Structures
1.
Amino acid sequence: MTFNVKDVAAGLIFIGLGGLFAAGSITLELGTPLRMGPGFFPLILAGFLIAIGAAIVLQGLQHAPAAVGLVPWRGIVLLTAAPIVFGATIRGLGLVLAVALVAAISAFASRRMSLPLAAAVTVGLTLFCVLIFHYGLSLPIRLFGPWLGT
Amino acid sequence: MDLFANLGLGFETAFTLTNILYCFVGVFLGTLVGVLPGIGPTATIAMLLPITLALSPVTSLIMLAGVYYGAQYGGSTTAILVNLPGESSSAVTAIDGYQMARQGRAGPALAAAALSSFFAGTVATLVLVLFAPPLTAIALKFGSAEYFSLMVLGLVCSVALAHGSIVKAIGMVVLGLLLGLVGTDIYSGTPRFALGFPELADGINFVTVAVGLFGIAEILRNLENETERDVAVRHVTGLMPTRADLRRIVMPVLRGTGLGSILGVLPGGGHILAAFAAYTLERRLGRHGAQFGKGAIEGVAAPEAANNAGAQTSFIPLLTLGIPSNPVMALMVGAMIIKGIVPGPNVATEEPELFWGVIVSMWLGNLLLVVLNLPLIGLWVRLLRIPYYILFPAILAFGAIGVFSVRGNVFDLYALALFGLLGYALVKFDCEPAPLLLGFVLGPMLEEHLRRAMIISRGDPLVFVQRPISAGLLLLAVAAFAIVFLPAVARKREDVFHEEA
């Protein structure tokens, strides 16, 4: 059996997320059309989203297959890790090291990156961000956090 | 007369040293991201929001607006010189612009693009000045039913103008609306869909959504196919178009400006449609129709005029109704709210400096763009040689700092990772992110007006069709929908987005 992977996958994402929102909505008070409760509008939207998702899946089962193409797995892992690492370290390590970590991690998302270049990008970007955000805009983020004993 | 007093106020506001400086910063950054493929104005403005925390509301909006129309401008430079449209609105310009460049007429093409953009920008600013005040007057009479119907119309248009499958675009809008509803319910105070995270009580941070969908997802998209950007740029000689060139572009520029000014008001990327419509119109109408695709100067001037005029007039719904017409305008709404300004018809009367200052700054910005860009073309082209793998660590770092600084919340960064993944998956499966962001911003407003209208009408849903303005807006929405599904238009629509892509 052949079908369009892109359509079916997109439809399934909509159905899944619609289902989550629907499940969340029915735990809330629905109210009446006159006085809608917090769950009323979201439940309608969630139902609609599930219906749309189902329609896309049905369409996809009839459409010609389409190539999904290359998936940059290395990029996905590293670029997902970068904001998480930033979030985990910004309070403890402070701006300087958190930015350096983000730059170093995300630099390697590209296969073309070399070690010296990554080092240069990390140092340059960290300096730039500290200058702009700390000294230029005086954002209230500490340069070095408590984990460093400062 | 009021108009002159208002314009005077606008000039006074826009021409202070700070505002000129930030207008310059805005158009400069805008041109930069317009030139560089792989980063667009939406992600840039999202990342710049923390910078605006330190600025006054007028100055921030002037800068952010500059980024937006500056990007339209920068996109055309690379479209002409290297056939790489930096922004989707300049894709049409690349067709004839690049041909002109190959024939050694890059200079006149660039000059034609710059001059038509400047002319269109000036006219569109006047359109804003003339039409914004009466529109705000009408908007002040709007009740909840009208607002609800207006937003429905806006969302329908954004679906109609989205790339690719319409059904998927509807799905994206609805998903956006739902994500926008996360947070405390304003009527009952109940937390909704918070999954036990106290950070979600205030809703999902919209900078997180914007940077995730338009920053990280876009980088991943570009990483799929890492090819060397081979930029062989011809030396640009002789900028000035000949007298014959100028005579040929006068009418196309006028028509392009008119089309752009009207279509720009449409929600969901009207300026992109305008550029394409202007190109098609000139190919049909113009005396040199046969030369189109082979380096006709009209094919550069008309779409450039149209997309620039459209970019300008897309501020009309934002400034008069407080309703964003595209993702960039949605971010502007966010910027206004961060600054404590409630977007809507009251802005013109309560914050006249902001209203008129921003409008006048657009004209100033267009002037700066012409002065800046024609002499600096060499610099922009050299920037194209920056490899992408140096660029995206910077996008990640600025994005992370930007997301964190809005609410000082670590949770938002974990959400950023999630939205990057979700955004990439959706883009991969051919779902365009723009309707989602628009839905996200409109979600809470849409629900609030729906509930309020229903309470006022004592639960009678007919209120939306009984009030004439509301009924008219809904009728337009139905018509827009019907037109998109007409077989002839559906085919044409595929052509449009095919040529654009």
2.
Amino acid sequence: MIPAEFDYVAPESLDAALAALREGGEDAKVLAGGHSLVPLMKLRLAAPALIVDLRRVPGLDGISEDGGTVRIGAMTRHHAVATAPRLGLAARAAATIADQQVRNRGTIGGTLAHGDPASDLPAVLVALEGAVVVRGERGERTIAGADLFQDYLTTALEQGEILTEVRLPAADGWGAGYAKFNRRVEDWAMVAVCAAVRKAPDGSCEDVRVGLTNMAGVPLRAGAVEAALRGRSLDPSAIAAAAEQAAEGTDPPADLNASADYKRHLARVLCRRALEEAAAAA
Amino acid sequence: MTPEDGNGHGLHVGRRMRRKEDPPLIQGRAKYVDDIDVAGVLWAAFVRSPEAHARIASIDASAALARPGVHAVYTGADLDLEAGLPTAWVPPGVDVNAPVHWPLAKDAVKHVGDPVAVVVGEDRYAVVDAAEDVLVDYDPLPAVVDPEAALEGGDLVHESLGSNKVHEWSLGGDVESALEASEVVVERRFVNHRTSGAPIEPRGIIADYRAGELTVWSSTQVPHFLKLFLALQLGMTEDRVRVVAPDVGGGFGSKLQVYGEEILLAWASRRLSRPIKWIETRSENMATSHHGRDQIAYVKLGADRDGTLNALHVKIIADFGAYMMLLTPLIPSLGAFVMAGCYRWKAVRTDITGVMTNKMATDAIRGAGRPEATHYIEVMLDQLAAEIDVDRLELRRRNFIPKEDFPAETPVGIVYDSGDYHGTLDKLLTHFDPEAERGRTADGKLRGVGFSTWTEICGLAPSRATGPSGLGVQAGLMESALVRVHLTGSISVYTGTSPHGQGLETAFAQIVADRLGCDPQQIDVMHGDTSQGPWGLDTYGSRSLAVGGEAIARASAKVADKVRAIVAHKLEAAADDIELREGKFSVKGSPDTGLTLAEVAGMAYIPEDNLPEGMEPGLEELSFYDPENFVFPFGAHAAVVEVDPETGNVDLVRYLAVDDCGPAINPTLIEGQIHGGIVHAVGQALFEQVSYDENGQLETGSFVSYALPSAAELPSFETDRTETPSPVNSLGVKGVGEAGTIAASAAVTNAVIDALRPLGIDFMNMPLTPMRVWEAIQEKGGAPA
């Protein structure tokens, strides 16, 4: 498993990293935790000429809260996200990523910038209406989660931009549920459904968010499920009825482990389970 | 369950002892091929076919050759070998239609990964880049993928052979009359799918030809086989060839092979007068280390309504892939030898048809033919039990060969050495209540229990059975041992087996220690270097203890005899009166006057007047051991599964195994083998499948798509043993390396079917993946809420 030849730099500031990226042009790639990019390079499915490693760039790591918004540095490891208080659904999903070794190395910024629809956090970002902050030559801009993922492994990040921060709403008052189906615990999801539920004082569903993983080339939001449940009862039959709409409008690609029909079926089952968990936790 | 320790075999034999070989392995100080540096080494990288079947129109290596540091690019046209790669077993008395198999494809490629060219150069990375610069123009040909369709005619894998059929081979006599006389005949079609050995260390080779001598380091199970075939292929004499198998990170049968890369690197090293190294990548391993299983079987079982078994007829179509490798045509036959299982039958017959397809060759993978056979027998027993409404355990008990019948000849002419099949099943049932494990859980899961009561044939092998006048394997399969006591009393033991993870260094040391009165830690077990010790036959087929260990016991006994004679001479006693007691050889009844092994060794090497008249000095003995028969371990296994009827997911929640491999040498090592073996078969039953699409493209090229299970997917296994000695060897031992793999796929499959019967599902083929289980449930109208 020998990658093609590449140059490597580990700049010590964000500006230096941006400069290196600019110099490298379209053949340059940013390296965060390496758990998506490096395997692709070893298989020669990716062959960047320049690797810009962010590990020495200060200020990209850590979790802080700012008026109801949680700011997560792009280089924050999955383990830190999984064990952080007040991250709710993001923590719940991050705790299921692959195995402990991967969670100790992989980063939230890396997984979102990579844009693999089978990985856990993209659907969470979309469902929770989070955003990412990116820095480029022209300065800083914010991209809404809904706009970030454009196609399979393709995001709205432009050449020369670095994802620096992830913003998610604080999880106060929300219950989180995550139902992932895979054959082995360290596998990517065959299908996963993330759900967040906030209850009204009478116990009904005040608000709900549902995201679908690996049901398309990009993470999806199950709008029909949300609409069916928002403002309604959270009893099991209502949840089950809403979950029946989880696969509505989806056309998931078949793979070795799952046909499109099976994926749609799994989405419905997992949606019910995720909602039940979220409702119980709310 | 904790197996009983200390069966009174000796001070060390029969007791738990930590593996002597482990400290370097767990401290990262082991020496694999990739850890070996040879000065001046060049690196090799292979250009492999992306096509399943194609004519090679042209190869342009000019760009690769122009890269700095590239010394050579060789293609099939450059090869000047006299013969293709070896197949060691050709079934006697039947026509075998086999292609010539070159280390580099000549004219055409026959499967994805078929090597087309090798690039040799100075830098490990640069040769991989250069290999990408070798331009091969392929004219695609139709890929033959379905083995049954391949037998019907149409496209050919090898046009010159005129047929895709390799051979037909049968074992067992007339089975039709016993089937016709049966009150019930159950018929099923099995697909026993293709799997990978998937060792964590892929293959690796260094070949160093210099001054007329060849040294090859290879991550292999079979250094002696490789030495022999290197000599034959390269036209050298054996004394000029040395093969070293250093630490080997798993084989599972996939390294019981003489690979084209091994021959080719040696050939190229001779041609370039430079050592050459190659380390296989995981992608190459998945595509080009031989695969296993891959059978379709049409099985008919005849019985009476009271549960009396009459006849078993198994027709196997074995997908051999594109080439016959070292033992390819033998593998299904190994299953035929034990197709009677643990049961009394009037007739048993196996008909095998070998067929070629445009896939990697199949060959021995842990169990090799016997997991398939056990799967057919044990799943069929459950199918019959349901058909005639007889309890499946009662059915087994009623038909077990009773222990007083051993040695027992089966209808296929194999003589089982010893067994107590009731004993292992009875003991299994002391550990759990199957009925309490079954039914529907509070959260709607379906629980099922499955059994496998199995036996197998191992301890390869008596030469009379396997040699040229027997089955025609071109090897005697005996084993050697040399026990050398040094001047100071420390011991080196040379074995012709080639341990690669089994813990045999520890087991062998325990055997020697008991016979010579020393500490197992003082004993070095040497293996894997053909320049040390006598000719050996390596490690596979659960043979190393039952054949290699017996050779060591015999060589040790010879040393002990000499020690007794020396001690008797010194103490003026009769040799028969000398006993080994508390680390000293002493006259019976006078323990205080005894001599230690170190003292005797000193006398043996400094004879003066220490030795009896006429005795030669020195203290080492050699034994060559050719067993009288195979050995037949057996056991009773049970799996408990939980099926999620909504998703089709199967969760293995308990696995219980009672095994009998004769008296334990070291219970810890047995458990290690049983655990690993079970995982291997659970992998086949629930997770693993080497998959080619309809165009012959490999779909499982890495561990992402090839679902090797991890500890997280498995329960902690519950194991126990009984001990029924084999009369075949003095240790009474039987092999255990393949036992779990041979037993477990049927237990898991039967458990899943047991769980699904309430939904109307009464039969399924492996792998029991979530989607397949879900689809089976959908076909029956879905799961009730």
